[in-house]
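Q: Hi! First time doing this. I have a protein sequence and I read that you can turn it into a structure. Is that right? Here it is:
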Amino acid sequence: MFWILVVKLVCLPLWRRMAVWFLWSLLLWAGGTMEAQKAAFPVAVTGAQVQGQVGGSVLLVAECHPGFQVREAVWRSLWPSEELLATSFRGSLEILYHSRFLGRTQMHSNLSLELRPLKSGDSGNFSVLLVDTGGRTWTQILHLKVYDAVPRPVVQVFIAVSGDAQSPKTCQAFLSCWVPNISDITYSWQQEGTVDFGTKLHGLFMDGQVLMVSLGPEDKGMAYSCIVSNPVSWNSTVVNPWESCNHEAGKSSYKDVLLVVVPVSLLLILEKRRMPVLMEWL
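A: Yes, that's right. Below is the predicted 3D structure, encoded as structure tokens:
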């Protein structure tokens, strides 16, 4: 057939041959473009990260390829167990499916799914299956991580004085900061009224939970904030360590700074495990 077409083209006048070749090339280009677009059309997208806070709400957004005319949508929870959450068929929404999210879901007109109020056990993977009018499918997988709200941290002040090694007017303080039963948190410190600690002697221990500062009489009004945060919330506590320095005046002192760092570290570990520890609260 191809050779017959070539012979017939050769017999045609030049202008007709050029017109036929042009149309033939156009058809081949259009067919190739459609195949390329079809091959490039993704059928699934994974890895979207969504974060929420216990007691709050979160919106799982259904996104699809431009030009994708959605006819059906199916939302499911994939972990820890697979459960049907919500469906949409030709604009008709249904969310009354028996699952741990029953009564806490709302499906919007754009097919996104809202969950509220969130619980700590809601973390997991979710998927939405979209079907267009031509029968093509698009699957999106999202990972939801639910965090607890960070409570106000507890700050304790411990004083280390080695009378022979430093001036009697110098006070070396260790500030310990912690919050109970919260995961994925970070600790940081800030001197009130400044961006950083300036030239004051300081040091961090226990991944930022313990701050060491060296103070003098001129630092009476100096306050420090312990800031505890996770990806969705934060909280802080302000303390003035010089008040504890005055309170400790005249008491027996440590001979080595390490004798303070070690008890403070043990205190933090034991308090996290909720073990009774008898230590002085300053």
